[in-house]
Amino acid sequence: MYATRNILSASMVEIGDEFKLTGVQLGLLNTLFYLAYTLSQIPPSGIIADKIGLKVVLVFGFVFYGIFTGLTGIAASFTILLIMRILVGIGQGTYYGPQYALSSLNVPPKKNRGVGNAIINSGMAFGTSLGLIGGGFITSKLGWRYNFYIFAIPVFLIALLFQFVIRKTKPVSRNDLLITLKMQKKPMLSTKAIDVILLRFSSSSFVPSLAFLYPKLAALLSSS
Questions:
Q1: What is the CA radius of gyration of the chain?
Q2: Would you list the domain boundaries of the chain?
Q3: Handedness of CA 167, 169, 175, 177 (dihedral sign)
Q4: Cα–Cα distance between 134 and 128 in angstroms, integer?
Q5: Residues 138, 150: contact at Cβ < 8 Å?
Q6: Is 0.85 topped by the overall pTM?
Q7: Longest dimension (CA), the chain
Q8: 2-223 adopts what CATH topology?
């Protein structure tokens, strides 16, 4: 995700030249992306994921933003480019809630949590570097549009990986959440903890874990 996010930065000069954009207009591309990205995280990745299942939202989000990442490459105007970036932001915003929940359930806190989070968080830097370096190279050789065509491909591959590796999850009730936060015994994935860690790394889209808040959340829900 960080790779597809940063190919825009590697393409800014060429996009600006083609569409005759000002610095403010170029900045708006990222501003609207992050606004949509932020606003989409609470309903889709939180409420909806709890109601229809973590896997459904996770896979749908990847396919959704993969489609509009690819379609960004055929944008014929600045307005269409803005719309594509907003839709990509909405799709990427569905990732955090389901994936944090899945990894928290499947990475043992005492055995693998420290190393696991280190690997997971390194995906952010890896994706950023890949997007900037790879995006710059592709832009110089093929043009900025091919950035979005090419980087959309691994997004679909990761969506397929999630589809086949992650077991279907049931909607989460209040009691289920309390039990999960306290016990964390039954994994929902058909893989070991290291596979969960590598899945999150491959998505290149994570910031430091907020695992220290889980006990507080459980206590808050119990008292409510």
A1: 18
A2: 2-223
A3: positive
A4: 10
A5: yes
A6: no
A7: 59
A8: Growth Hormone; Chain: A; (1.20.1250)
